[in-house]
Design a protein that fits this description.
Layout: E1 3-14, E2 17-23, E3 32-33, E4 35-38, H1 45-57, E5 60-61, E6 65-74, E7 79-88, E8 91-92, E9 101-107, H2 120-128, E10 132-140, E11 144-153
Parallel strand pairs: 1-7, 6-10
Antiparallel strand pairs: 1-2, 1-4, 2-3, 2-9, 5-8, 6-7, 10-11
The structure holds 7-(furan-2-yl)-5-methyl-1,3-benzoxazol-2-amine.
Length: about 160
């Protein structure tokens, strides 16, 4: 029986830069990513996204826009990860290192894809050009993508 686990993933943009966090522990450890995690019982996906952004980067996000919906399956694992991707250019505070993440600004021409989840190189170009997108990725282990489907959409 398959079940779905809801996760958020937030990207903060400023001019030609994007804020990424180096994951210091846990799921995705050693890779750069947006800020996010599990949506808890009793909170909306948006509330979870804002909470995780602040917990992981110290920033307070404002008016997040949902830009993508990515479903991840791991071979042999019945739990599907449903990742709601958000972007914002409106935030307050300065990025700060937390227990989970070490934030850093990257130029959008210089994304460290070799040190990120292997799906990112596939859908980041859609995010960076301002498209909305929906995708499904089947992973074998934490790195190999066995198959995927990725579409640009008018609305999530
Ligand atoms: C399987 C997977 C999970 C996540 C994730 C963890 C927390 C929020 O999203 C990813 O994030 C990215 N960029 N690729 C990802 C693949």
């Amino acid at each position: 029986m398959t079940t779905r686990k809801l996760l958020s993933l937030v990207f903060v943009r400023e001019a030609s830069k994007i804020l990424l966090g180096y994951k210091k522990r846990g799921f995705g450890q050693g890779w750069w990513n947006g800020f996010g995690g599990k949506v808890e019982k009793g909170e909306t996906i948006m509330q979870g996204a804002l909470r995780e952004l602040t917990e992981e980067s110290g920033l307070i996000g404002d008016s997040l826009e949902e830009i993508g919906l990515l479903t991840f399956e791991f071979e042999g694992d019945p739990v599907l990860l449903e990742v709601h991707v958000f972007s914002t250019t409106k935030f307050s505070g300065k990025p700060e290192e937390t227990e989970e993440m070490r934030p850093a600004w990257f130029d959008i021409q210089d994304i460290p894809f070799k040190k990120m989840w292997s799906d990112d190189v596939l859908w980041f170009p859609l995010m960076l050009k301002g498209s909305k997108f929906k995708g499904y990725f089947l992973f074998k282990g934490l790195h190999d993508i066995l198959k995927y489907k990725l579409d640009e959409v008018d609305k999530i």
